[in-house]
Structure formats: structure tokens, C-alpha cells
Amino acid sequence: MTPITSNTSNTSVRVSTFPQHTRAMPVYQQKQKKVSQEYHSSQHVVQQISSRKSVSKSVKKEQVEATEAMAEPAYKVPAFRQREPEGMQEYQRMAAHFGRDLNSLQQELHRIKVATHEQVENIEITREVKEMSMRKEFHADTPKAPDFLVGLRSHTVWEKTPVKLFCTVSGSPTPIVKWFKNDAPIDPLSAPGKYKIESKYGVHSLIISRCSVADSAVYSAVATNPEGKIKSKATVCVRRPAGAAESAHFPGLVPLLSGIHRSKLEVTFVDRFGVSFGTEGESVTLVASLVVVPDLPNLPPEAMWYRDDTLLKPSRWAEMSIGGGAAKLTLPHLNKDDEGLYTLRIWTKDGTTEHSAYLFVKDATPSVAGAPGAPMDVTVSDANKDYVLVSWKPPNTTNEPLITGYFVDRRKSGTKDWVQCNSTPVKVCKLPVHGLTEGASYHFRVRAVNSAGISLPSRESYGVTAAEVESDVEVIKIEGKYDIVVRQEELQGVYVTLAEPPTEVHATEINQTYVVLSWKPPSLRGRAPLWYLIEKSVGDSYLWQRVNTGVQIRSPRYPIYDLEDKKQYRFRVIAVNKYGPSEPSEPSDLIQKVDPYASIPNIGVPSAPGQVIASRNTKTSAFVQWEAPKNLKNLMGYYVDCCVVGSKVWMPCNHRPYKHTRFVVHGLIPGETYIFRVQAVNAYGLSEESQESAPLFIDAALNGGVDYAAPSAPYGISLLSCDGSSMTLAWKRPKNTGGTRITSYYLDKREAGSLNWKEVSHSPATSRVYKVENLTAGVFYEFKVQAGNLAGVGLASEPSKAFACEAWTMPEPGPAYDISFWEVRDSSLLLQWRAPVYNGESPITGYFVEMAKKGSSDFVTVNAEPVSHRYLKVTGLETGALYVFKVRAVNASGKGKASDVSDAVCVKALPDTKEIEYGVDEETGDVFLSFEASEISEHSKFTWSKSYKEITESNRMTVSAAGRRSRLTFVNPEKEDLGIYSVAVSDTNGVSASHTISEEELNKMLELSYNIRHPIVPLKTELSYEVLEKGHVRFWLQAQKMSPAVSYRFIVNDKEVTSGEGHKISHDASSGVIQMTIEHFTRANEGTYTLQIHDGKAKNQSSLVLVGDVFKAALKEAEFQRKEHIRKQGPHFSEYLTFHVDEECTVMLVCKLANVKKETTFAWFKDDEEIVLDVPPNPMSGSCALPIPLFSRKDQGIYKAVLGDDRGKDTSVYDISGQVFEDIINAIAHIAGSSASDLMLQCTPEGIRLQCYMKYYTEEMKTSWFHKESKIASSEKMRIGGTSEMAWMQICEPTDREKGHYTIEINDGKASHTRTFDLSGQAYNDAYAEFQRLKAAAFAEKNRGRVVGGLPDVVTIMEYKTLSLTCTVWGDPQPEVTWFKNEQEVLSDGHNKITFESGKFASLTINSVTVDDSGKYSINVRNKYGGEFVEITVSVYKQGEEIPEPKLGQMSRPTPVPKSPAPPSKPQTPAPSRKTPTPTPPPSVKSPTPTPPPSVKSPTPAPKSPTPPRSAKSPTPPRFMRSPTPTKK
After folding, report:
1. In sequence order, which residues have a C-beta less than 8 Å from that of residue 384 and are 6 or more positions away?
2. In angstroms, how far is CA 78 from the centroid of its own chain?
3. Which residues lie across from 963 on neighbouring strands?
4. pTM summary value
5. Is the pLDDT of residue 53 over 60?
């Protein structure tokens, strides 16, 4: 679809069509030549449509219809929603009114389109021809900056539909257009297929395919040429269609389906999820097991999950799956937003099957105790360019302080940083947020505030884009074929610069904190960006004042704060664009802030709910209903609270507002009694609490809610004995008693084969064993039983099997009966039964118990030997398994008849099962057994037994019960009370427990009971003493607990001491401390101290003997503390001298000072000699330090630090010797050892040296060397030594015996630091070769020819004097001596005389020197090992001239020279005046030394002359080499 737009001075129309694709649109001009008459007729059509629009308001711009082929350069304007039939009729009527029908209008539009298109093409072709001709005439166009003739237009589209942005640009040279998204360049290659950029005929377009919410942004086109740059912006807002909200017909039910969606699968629920409980931050999974027929792996049933009345969709908060026989809903990160009624609905063959259960989500633990819970259900609405309205639901508060306000935070999509929106808490559950960036997407969260702190944040909202909602552009679609895009200014036939004033200024939100002002944007606003200014006036004064000074408002909404209370205001709005401001709008009505608790409709919190009624539901839930408040005031829902009667602690029942007036409260404790209350909730907070409900005992509800019901049918009728004329029968209690005790049983009998039942007796049986008499021998009888209670007689049991009335004569016993199970735990249970009625020929001696798993007939005997009592604890059972049992009695004749098989029992402990507690009452001292039942019913009773025989009346113990707890109290417990005690709770699911009292346990309880009945004051500490800082002595003890009414007295040497002069006595009841302080402790205070305590009935005493050596020690300490106190009155050491070794191994003597002033002096002394430091100590710093670098044995001595001023003097002495010296050395060794490098190899002329570098080394450190685990002692062969930087060990003249591992060990007194080197293999060979080379080089260096001394560097002499240059030379063998002048050899003649005497005195004598004799002289001394040059500068001056000052006056420095292989036959040219050693190298040996760096010059340069350069360096051996093998640390 290609939009065609033609502009005149009055209007513009864009016509689009699907069937025909035309060329792209040419460049638009604001002022254009006249077009043909066909175009003027299009203006008439537009005016007709405008008239129709003013009549019918059904035409809107909400629907968007996407183009079918995005690859084409076509654009389709979003279409309007299809008209309803009434709207269509109106449209047809209006078409008839204009005198033409729809077909003629279509034809007219098509004709207009074709004519306009042809004319625009002609204009474009003409313009292009003119431009080509102009380019021929002129080399360049007139420069012109870029300008947007048609700018970008904002769009609001649905998700997954395309959108096209286009603009028209003019300029010279032709501008280059680039596209940006939120100021970031758009690269089509970064998301292939997402973006398409086109540029034809001056029209530039950006196509975004399949828009997502993330595409919501501000898009801009930037046109650039050498003359300038211009930008056009537009906002794209992508919206996600919201699902239609279907209303539920009943509270808590999911929406009804609009139609039947039948499936070919039969689905049956097997296991359903129940009521669930979770905490914020946790994860919960709801699972329903299914049976699907047929079960096709690739065709699972269609399942839908609902929360309350909302269909859930997969998201980051909800994960759904179905398959494998189960449907699952996982909530990975719970929030209170997730609380509600969850329903699983599955399509089946017959329609749907569904299951519902409630999920409760309680608050997470707050970051601050007492802080409120997090708010919930954060929603964002009324989104505009820079404004949104955030709302939420308040949390429930039961025991926390009331909420005082809320903070709202925002976060831009794609970032993690939250920014707080409001500086002060807002009191209402909604906040207008302004100042947003247009086109940006935001998330919001809320935190509640009370006096205790701030809550955890709520779940963040879904992303919302700040974008323009309203626009002055209308899109009219005709029969789905043609689109007409019209601006309001075009309909009015004007080109708008200044906008019209806004209209309908009014307040949409009014409360005590702010007022949200809203208005309708101007209908004619122009194309320039628009913003607004707000003015206010107080009352009817019409004195207008600017509200938003400095704030640019782009949305037709704005929150106004800081309005004064009880004042009314009027507001007006001004629209502003780049051309200037509009006229002000009409003033609003009077607006005033309101108190949320005032009685204004829909403002403030709701009134309290009405009467609350609670009734039973299940054993752990209750049904609560209430009357709605009289004043709802935009009610959000209700919070229900509960409280256990007597506790006064209220607990929340729901954590998310519930919308209906009836609620099922789950998670209650069976057997407890609760009261309930309700609060109504809206945006202003929580209402007052309702009145409390009547107390409700938590138990299961019965038929129709009546108090009691008739019991169910008994079962399991069995025959216990028969004597030929009577039968003794027994049966099992009904599984449902009807809520009250069964009082009677009614028996009926009949002969087998008969249909007529007869009563056994007119009076009912009161127990479950009954003897039926007057029977006929040999006849078979059947029986049935009915149970009765207060509600009536229940159903009859199934008829028993036929019993033969024949006398029992067998010698073995009859069957046991009435098997019951108690104390069921996860792997054990207790079995009880009753003795047989028929004993056989002899008394019963015991019982055997048999068991089997349910469904199995393989019974095994539990006990190997018969038990004489009628109970047995069975252990080692499988948790969760079902078992059945039988019991056989035994007498002298053998095993009797087995009992009937028991009911199946599941071996699993009941939830919250507790055991019997054995203890002593802290008040009375009574020994007791106590039991708390996990559940009880209203008619439950506690039955205590000893050895599983019920305790009825006894003078040895009493039984009491209160609520769910019962206590068995012993009167005077003795050994005869030892044994097994058990308790069972009736009308429960087998709640019971047992405890065995042993003799040891009884003795312990009796001792504790005696202590309680004969109380003493328990002591934490006995009487003791401590010396305080002033020399005071404190005597004290501490009791475990003490009442404020305690009395006590101190007795010293049998005399009571009271508080007075010299003694201070006091106590602290909260801590239990009693103390006496003696201010002046002397020898007179020696003796025995006793403290007697009385606290109610309890008493105690404690004594302290302070005599002899103990007293002397206390007195000495007191005198010392007294002196210390006096010392501290002046300058003193708060910490005496001690040492510290820093990281550089410098020993620091440190001390801390106190009570100093500027006049205080400080001095250091060693062995009474003052130490003067470069930087004097500063006592005012609070500490002083004396550094001792390179610490060694010479630093031993007595060090003193002296501190003093006019108030006194203090001295600290530190003796560094003995153990202190050892400690310092060890501290140095620890740091040095930790910093020690790996052992390194250094070859010398004397041998091979291993050396270890460290921060500091001294021979006092405990350092040891080892060779192959053997310690090395220093000797001529193995020399051990070191410097301040390293420790070394040298192997002199090494041999193969010295190969192997070498280790250095540095011991710091606590640990050893070791480094190793493997001197073997290639490492040894290379080192040995290097040693030989260095040894030869040293020998050569020692014996080469050299000048020992005697020659100066510079000689100045007057003409005609005699110059004698004499020096001493040395060499072995005797060296040769050669003299040179200016690099030419000097020969002995009459003028120059050369002598060499005794092989060591060489001289050159120049007779009658002349100026020509000036120059550079040198002597070359050499033998076969080498030699050296020495240079002398001779300067001859004439008589009468000023003596030149010599530059150098010291002796000449010898310079070695290389050994010549043969004496030169000709005079050689000496080298330049530089010295260099060039000894003759020995035969080449491969050295293990690493290659020297490039900066080191070659030790043997190739000289051009016998005189080598003076600046060349002597060859030196490498400092070290690393081990070729890894070292051990």
C-alpha cells in the first residue's frame, strides 16, 4: 500500500489502496502549484467525511491492520475497528444524505488517486528535467541546509504487526539520512529481517516488521549535509492485546466457557493438589496426576490454569507443563501476587473436568523487625508521553505498626538500577509519576513504610512505555480497501502554527497529598512538538500564578503538590510549541484537597465490615462470612485475621485482599479455639477492624452443619465363644462416631437362610462384646449391629458370616479380639488386644503376634517367644507401608485360634507428633509426665496407663487436662512408680505416646524436686576478689537469679561489715551481682570473708579465705595498682616497650604514650647512652618507635624510653638479650624465609656457589644447609656465609662427589622455610665447565702484563726541559714493553731514550722537549696472558707563556690489552685513547649462565689496532643461574 499525499494551502489527503502498487511518493512542498480539478474534488470528499465525523462518534483509531508484504515499499495506515450494525446504518444514511452511495464514492476516490498520482509524477519529472538542465548551466546548486518537508509521525500499533515510519527531506547537496532508536544507530544487519531502510525520490522510510513490546521507543531520522543537520522524532508504542475479562458467576470460580470445546481424550484426575502454603521467595509446584485414554505422547490433553478469575499464561512467574500423566504449574519465585484460588481445567470427551485449591503466600521475613509486608499487584495505567499512574494494594498489618506511607521505585527496561520516584512517602496506594523519557519502557515497584522501617519491595510491574496516546491524526478506512489519513488542521482547511487552547480542565485524582489535573489536548495543534504550562489561582481571585515553573509537561496529565489545606483553587492550561503559547484554557471548577478520612463519597478508607460468623469446615479449616461495609468507597477486598483464644496474638489468614464476603481459612490447629475479625481494604488503606466473631472450636463439620450426626455402621463381627446355647460376639467401633460418644449397640439375629431379622434383646448393649443366649444347638446364625448416640441410631452393619451354634471343647484358647494400634511412628507401632473369652483347658500363658503387608497372605511371627502381656511394640517397619496383624493366644495345649485380621495400618507418624515430657514443676517441685496432643476434638479425652493398664483411681498420682495438654503428676514418687507410662487421646486418629521411667531418671528428678522444695539461691560464681585500678579490692559473687527483695550481709573474721567509710556494699538484682569494695587494702584486711544471702524462701552463702600467700599476692597487686594509679597522673606509658619487625626486616621498638602535652619530652637510650634520631620523637602522636635496621648481635643491650614533664617522669626498659633476642631473630627469620628466592647457581674461580636472596640475612638466623639429607658444616671444602641480602654456600674445587640435591633451611622457631637445588646431570656439567673457564680466566688475569703505577694522566712541561715517564710493570712471565706517541711506536734514539730494568721498571726519557713533543703517549705492557695500555697526555709550552692548567692530575688507570700471538714486526697504530680489558679467552666452554641482555657489550671486541677502546668493559662472570629443575618450597 503506497500513500499518495498532495498538499495545498488548505488541506492534504492521503489515499491508499491495496490492489494497485504505484511508484514511491515524490518530494512534498509546503507551497505547491495548483493541481487539477480532480484534486479539488478530493477536498470536497474530505469535507463530507469531516461532516459525517462530527455526527457519528463511533469512528476511532484503535485498530491496526498490517500490510501483507513487508518487502514491498508499501505502507498501510492502521485501520479503525469494524463498525457495528447500528454504525453501518448510520454511515449508509449519511452517505445517502450526501447524495451518493458507497460505490460511487469508491469510484470517485479511485479517479482522484489516479489523477493525483499522474500529476505528481509529471511534477516530479518536470522538476528532475529542470534540475538536470540547471546542473548543465551551473557546476553546483545553491547550498541549502536540510529541512523536513514531511516529518515523522508517531504510531501506536498492536504486537506482532509491522509499522512504517517515513519522512521527506530537502536540501542541497542531497542530505544523508540516518535512523536512530533511542539515540542509538539502527543497523539492519544486526537483526536480519527486523529493519528495512529505503530511500527513493527524497522519501526516506524505516519498516519495522513484527513489532514487539521491546520495539516501543523514540525513533529519529537525522538528515545531514555540509550545510547543517536536522532531526525529526516520532514515538512508536507497541501494545499487547489484553485478554477479555470474563466474569465469574460464583465467587472463586473461573470464568464460564463461551462454548463447548470437546476432546477425543478421556481424562480422569487420580491425585489432586491440595491447599498449599508458601512464603515469598520460595518455589511452589501444583501437580495433578491424570489418567488419559488414549495416552498419546504427541497429543497431550489441553489444560488451562486459572488464578481466581484470570487465565494464566507462561511467563517468568509461572511455568506450565503437561505430560507423563501429570499437569504441573510451577511458581518459581512466590510473591503475594500469586495468592489465590488456582483452578486446573482440562478438556475431555464429555466437555471439561477441573479441580481447584487455594494457595496462601505469607510475607517473607522483613529486613527490619516490625517492618510491614510488601505491597502487591502493582499496576500502571494512564500512560502518556512523560506520565503514568502507578497503583497497588496495601499489605495486611496485624501486629506491626500502622503503615505511614509508600515509596515507589522505577527502573528503565534493560537496566538494573532502581530510582526512587517520591522523596516523601505517599499515603495513598497510587502515585502519579511524571518526568519520564518519551519512548522509554519502565518497570515499577513499591515499598511500604512504618515506624519500624521499610518493607521489602513488591514484585515489579510489567513494562510500560511512556508514549503519546492521543493524536490529531484520523485514519478513515472504507470497506477495508481505501485508507484516508486526515489531520484536524486539514479538515479545518488551515495550516496551524499556534495551537488552540486545551479544553475540559478537571481533576481526576484528589487526596490529601496531591491533585492530578487532566485536560483535553487542543484539537488543532499543528505539527510542531507541544508542551503545556499550568497556572493556578486561589478561590475566585483570578490572580494567576505559574505552577510548573521550569518543568516542561508533554502529557495532558500532571500531579500538583503543595496545595494548602482548606483552600480552593482554579486551574487553567496553556499549550506551547516553537511558535509560541496558545490562549489559556477555560478555568477549571474549584478544586480542594481532601482528607482521606473525611466523609466524602469514594474518598477515604471504607467503613468496618459488619457481623462476622465463623463455622466449622474441616479439622484444619473454618468457614468465615461477614456483612459488607455500609460505605464501600472503591473497595479492593478484605483481610481476615484469626487469634487463638487467650493468646491475644492476631495472625493474618490471607495476605492478598479477597473480593468476596465469605472465605475459608486454612492452616488452623485442630482442637484449638479461634476468634476471627475482618478489615476492608481500598487505595486509602485498611478500615477499622470488625467486631470479633464468636469463639469456634476447630473440628470437622458434620451433616449439613448440625451439631451431631448418627454414627456409621459397625463392622468386623466375630465369634469369641460358644457353649451350644449361647454365643459371645464382638465387633469393631464405627469409623465415624457422628461427633459424639456412642452410647449403645443394637443386635439383630436370624437363622442362616432366613430373611427375617429379630432383636436379640430389648435393651441395647453398652459395650462391643455381647453374649447372645437362648440359641438352638446345631443351628447357624447370622448377626448385624447398629450403633447409637445422641443423634440417633446409625446404619446397620453388613450381616456377619454364618456361625454354627456348637459348643467349643478344644483344649487350645479361642481368638483374641479388638486389636488396636497406638504410638504409630515412622518405623514402629504399638499393638494392643484383648484376651480371648474362651481359655481352653488351661490358663493362657502368652501370645504370639503375626504380621504381613496389606494384600499379602504370607504372615510371619513377630515375637520368637510368647509375651505374657497384651501389648507388643513392633519395630523395624518400612515407613509408609501398610501392615495387617493377627494374634494367637497360647496355653499348655498349644497355640489357639487366630484372631480376625486387623485393619490395615500405615506406618507413618502423624504430623506434629510429640512425645511425653518428663520433668519437675518449677513452682511446686512435683514430678510429672506431660503430653501435648497434635490434634483433639471437642469430646476427646486423655487416658493415662501404666504398663498399658488404665490408671483409674490412685492415691499415688493425679491426672489433669487443659486444652491439648494433659499432665500426670506423682504425689510421692518411689521405686514402685518405675515402668512404662502411656497416654492415648480418644476421638482422634490414634494420637498417643509412651515413656519409660528408669531408676536413674527418677533419682535425677527427685533431686531436682528436692532443690525446688528446699530452695537455695543458685550461684553463677562463688565469692571471689579482684584488684581494681586504684588499688581498691572488690569482693563479689553472682547469683543465677535474684529478686529485688533480696537481703544479704558480709561477715569478715566473724564480724558483720556494713557500708560506710572505707567499705562500699551494693547489689544489682537484674544481673545478680553482690559486691563489697575496700578502698584501702592493708595487712589488717587479712582473714575470712563470708557473704550470706536470703531471697524469699531461698538462701545461700559463700566464703573466701584470704590468708597467707594468697593474701600477700592480693596485697602486692593492690599496692602495685595504687602506684600505677599515681604514675598515670602524669605522662606515662599506656603500653610499654615491645618490638615489631616490619616487612623490610627492620626491627622497631614501639611504645604507646598517654596523658602527654606539648612540653612533654621523650628520649631513647641504649646501655645508658642516648640515641639521637634524625627525626626527633613526637610524644603528642601517642606512640613512638625506634628503628633498628640490619639487626644483629651487636644490637643487643638494654634499651630505655624516658618520658617526662613537670608532672612527673616515666621509664620503660627493654632488655634485648637472651630469649628476647631469640624472638627478634625468629621474627626476622619468618619474614626473610617467606621472601627467600629460589636457590641460584653462581660459578666463581674458586668453585660453585649456591646462593639464596632474601629481604635480610644475618648469621644469627638459624640457617642450615643440607646435601642429600646430610647437614653441611662450614669447612675449607664447603664454605658457608652470606651478606645482608643473601645466604650462600660455596663448593670449592668441586668433584663428582658434590653432585646431588642441596637444600637451605631457615627456621623461625615455629616453621621452616626451605629452598632446594638439584646440582646433578647437565646442570652440574654446565656449572663445572663454567667454573673451569672462570678459573682459567682468573689465572690469566692474575698473571697478565700490567702497569702497577707511576704514570700520570696529564704532563705539562716547559720547552727544552727533560721529560722522564717512568712506571712499574708486572707480569708472569716477564712482559714486553712498547711505547707509542700519537699511535706511532716510539724507538729509542738520541732524543727518546727507552729503558726497561729488572723486568719491572720501564721508562721513556725525552731530552730537551719541544712543542713538537706534545701529544698523546701510551705504554703497552703485555705477555702471553695479555696486557694493558696506559695513556699519558703531554703538553709542552714555551718559555714565558702562561702555564696551562692540566685537566687531570691523578695517576693513570691501567687498561688491559689483548695478548698478541707474536711480537709485531712493524710499528702498530694504537687505538683511540680508550681503555679496554681484552684477556685471551681459554678454550670455549658451554656456560650454564643465561645469555646476557643486549645492553651488555661483548667482552672481546675485535680491535682495529693493538690499542683497544678505553670504554670497553672487562668480562665479568654472570651473577647467578637458575636451577634446571623445579625447586621445592
Report:
1. 466, 467, 468, 469, 554, 555, 556, 557
2. 46
3. none
4. 0.45
5. no
> Up-side HSE of residue 1378: CA atoms within 13 Å toward CB?
23
Q: Is the pLDDT of residue 648 over 90?
A: no
**Distance in angstroms (rounded) separating the CA atoms of residues 1011 and 1027:** 35
Q: Name residues whose C-beta falls within 8 Å of residue 1207's C-beta, 6 or more positions apart in sequence.
A: 1129, 1130, 1131
Burial class (CB in 10 A: 0-12, 13-18, 19+), 20: exposed
Q: Are 1264 and 1270 in contact (CB under 8 A)?
A: no
Instruction: Report residue 1316 CA to chain centroid gap.
Output: 47
pLDDT of residue 792: 78
Give yes or no for residue 474 having a pLDDT over 70: no
Distance CA 428, CA 683 (A): 6
> β-strands 163-172, 203-208: how paired?
antiparallel
CA 713 to chain centre: 59
pLDDT at site 85: 46
Helices 85-97 and 37-55: angle between axes, nearest 10 degrees: 130
Edge-first strand listing for the sheet containing 1063-1068: 1019-1027, 1033-1039, 1073-1078, 1063-1068
759: how many CB neighbours lie within 10 A of its CB?
Answer: 11
In angstroms, the CA 925 to CA 408 distance is 59
Is there a contact between 1069 and 1043 (Cβ–Cβ < 8 Å)?
Answer: yes
pLDDT grade, residue 770 (50/70/90)? very high
Are the C-beta atoms of residues 366 and 411 closer than 8 Å to each other? no
Q: Which residues pair with 787 in a beta bridge?
A: 745
Alpha-carbon distance of 902 to 899, in angstroms, equals 8
The percentage of residues in the chain with a pLDDT greater than 70, rounded to a whole number, is 82
Q: What is the pLDDT of residues 122-145, one digit of tens each?
A: 777 777 766 665 554 444 457 888
Find where cell 472504507 sits. Answer: 478
Contact 1011, 923 (CB under 8 A): no
Of 722-731, 1178-1187, 1442-1451, the poorest mean pLDDT is in 1442-1451
Distance CA 1347, CA 1338 (A): 18
- Write the pLDDT tens digit of every residue in 491-528: 555 567 888 899 999 998 887 778 889 988 888 877 78
Q: Are 894 and 875 in contact (CB under 8 A)?
A: no
Structural element, H or E, at residue 839: none
pLDDT band at 689 (very low <50, low <70, confident <90, very high): very high
Cell output for 784 = 448385624
Instruction: Tally Cβ neighbours within 10 Å of residue 460.
Output: 17
Taking only the tens place, the pLDDT of each residue in 998-1018 is 999 999 999 888 888 888 888
- The arithmetic mean of pLDDT across residues 80-84, rounded, is 41
Cell numbers for 609: 465490615
How confident is the model at residue 827, as a pLDDT?
93
Q: Where are the beta strands (DSSP E) in 1350-1443?
A: 1354-1358, 1363-1370, 1376-1381, 1384-1385, 1392-1397, 1401-1406, 1415-1423, 1426-1437
Average pLDDT of span 655-665: 92
Q: What 3 state SS string does 1367-1387 have?
A: EEEECCCCCEEEEEECCEECC
Written as nine digits, the cell of 110 is 479511485
Phi-psi region of 954 (alpha: psi -120 to 50; beta: other; left: phi over 0): beta
* 3-state DSSP assignment of residue 754: coil
How far is the C-alpha of 832 from the C-alpha of 874, rounded, in Å? 11
Calpha distance 25→73 (Å, rounded): 10
- Euclidean distance between CA atoms 195 and 208, whole angstroms: 5
What type of residue sits at position 886? K
Confidence of residue 1282 (pLDDT cuts 50, 70, 90): very high
pLDDT at 1038: 94
